[in-house]
Amino acid sequence: MDASPERQPILQAVDLQKTYGRRRVVDGVNLHVDEAEIVGLLGPNGAGKSTSFRMICGMIQPDRGRVYLEGQDVTDWPMFRRARDGHMGYLPQEPSVFKKLTVEQNISALLELLGMDRAARKTRTQQLLEEFNITHIRKSRAAGLSGGERRRLEIARCLVSDPRIVMLDEPFAGIDPITVQSIQGVIKQLRDSGISVLITDHAAREILGTVDRCYVIYQGQVLIDGSPEEVKEHPKVREEYLGDLDGAAQTTVQRSEAAGRPSGHIPRPHFRESNSPARKPARRVTDV
């Protein structure tokens, strides 16, 4: 895996390894994420994708290998420092909102922790509420939000520190197919505003419908690094992981239509225009 020669990647992981007991769970994983790019991390259960993701986020230490954020070696940095000094945002799989606070309080509380004065907090909170189309629920308590509303609030909270890259851990878990479309729109708008995204999820169809490029981890190694189309057509990926993905997708759509749910009725967020450079095309397949 070689990063783009034109510019330094936002995130780069080099030769990551992790062993538990006698089993090497991750065995030389290399990956990178460029500026304003959505990259997926997929793989069967036990393949090493979650361990790789957690090493990149700083939740666990690799036995070997390095992690770089904008060229800075952050391998030994704890997770909070990667967020504070490495411009990394993180959305955990588990609910991360303050349930007893309102939507706007959930955002302003984090801004206060960053040391913003009251006027700046008010301006930034309003900005994020509008960008994620959650202004209409600003006074609602987080405990009463739907799955999609909570996800949008959680991603908005990720942006309070103006990260360059956001790490999303199973953002499609626990939400219905129509809400998935809304969250996919949110993630793509992050990219369009110049923010990079690394996303891992068990929902392969949803991931492949969102990302620009995808890594599939198999038996602790990168099996393929390619576009969603390349991943779906890779024989080993189909045999060991995806199966008949198109058939499964069609079944999901049919179930949604049978339930009488109209498509596309959830508004997408509106982000400010960015002057970020245009993203590069996805890389070609690399077999390991």
UniProtKB/TrEMBL annotation:
Residues 245-288 are annotated as: Disordered. PROSITE patterns: ABC_TRANSPORTER_1, ABC_TRANSPORTER_2. InterPro entries: AAA+_ATPase, ABC_AA/LPS_Transport, ABC_transporter-like_ATP-bd, ABC_transporter-like_CS, LPS_export_LptB, P-loop_NTPase. Signal peptide: none annotated. This is Lipopolysaccharide export system ATP-binding protein LptB. Keywords: ATP-binding, Hydrolase, Nucleotide-binding, Transport. It comes from the Bacteria. It is an enzyme of class 3 (hydrolase). The gene is lptB. GO terms for cellular component: ATP-binding cassette (ABC) transporter complex. One of its GO terms (molecular function) is ATP binding. It comes from Novipirellula artificiosorum. Residues 11-244 form the ABC transporter domain. The keyword Amino-acid biosynthesis does not apply.
